[in-house]
Amino acid sequence: MAVIGASRRRGAFLAAALGMAAALFVAAAPPVWARQRGAAEPGRFDHYLLSLSVAPSFCAASPANRAKAECRDLTAAEYRRTPLTVHGLWPNRAGVSVNLQPQDCDGPPFAPPPAAQAAALERFMPGGIGLLRHEWKRHGTCSGLTQGEYVAALLRLAAQADGIVGGALRDGGMLGRPVPTADLLRAVAARDPAWAEALVVDCRHGRGGGPAMIAEIRVTLDRDFAPVPAQSAGLGQNSGCPRGGGFLPAGPLP
Taking the domains of the chain in order of start, what are their residue ranges? Predict the structure, then answer.
C-alpha cells in the first residue's frame, strides 16, 4: 500500500508539473493572430503595394467621401494634372489575406513633415496630414524606414506613377469613357513594360449603382521600390472589374 501511495503521489506531482509547464508555454506564446500577421515586427514583409486613387471615383463612392475637403475642392484641371493620388504605400506579405497583413507596428510616433514634403503632399496626397498620419501609423511603421525615408519614397513613387500610368490614361484619351483593363495595361506597357506588369486595376460601383468605375490602381514593388509582376505577389491584374474593365471619369462627378 505504501508503494501504491508513493506512486500516486509521484503521478500527481508529475501531472501538476506538466500542467504548470503548459500554462507557462501558453502564457509565453504570442496569440495566433500575432504569429500569423507578424504585425509587431517592422521590416518583416515581402513586397510593397502602392495604392493609387482615381479621385472622382473615390469621391463618388459614398456621401462621406464627397464631404471630404479633397473631394469638395477637386477640379477637372487638378484631376487631369494628377490623375492618380496616393492612398498608401503598404508593406505586404505574399500569400497572406488582407486582414492579416502587417499593420500598426511598433515605431516612432508621427511628426509633421518638413515644408518641402508637405508642399508635395498637397498634390500627390490631397488627404493631407491627417491621411499621412494614419498611413504612417498603420503601414509606414511596418516598413522599417524612418518617417522621412518612407514619405520620400511615397512621393517619389507617386510622381513616377503619375508620369507613367497617369500620363497613359490622360494622353491616351481614356478619361471620360469605359476602359478595358487590357487596353489600360497596353497603354502603360508602351511607356514602361515593367510598370504594366506590376499593375492591379481595381473597380468598384458608386453608391446607388451605375457602372463599375476604376477606383484604384495598385502597383506591386520589391523592397527596393522597383516594380515586380503582380502575379509574383499572388495578385491578379483585374480586381473586381466586371467584363474586364471599368469607367474612368473625366472630372468630378455630380
Answer: 1-30, 38-248
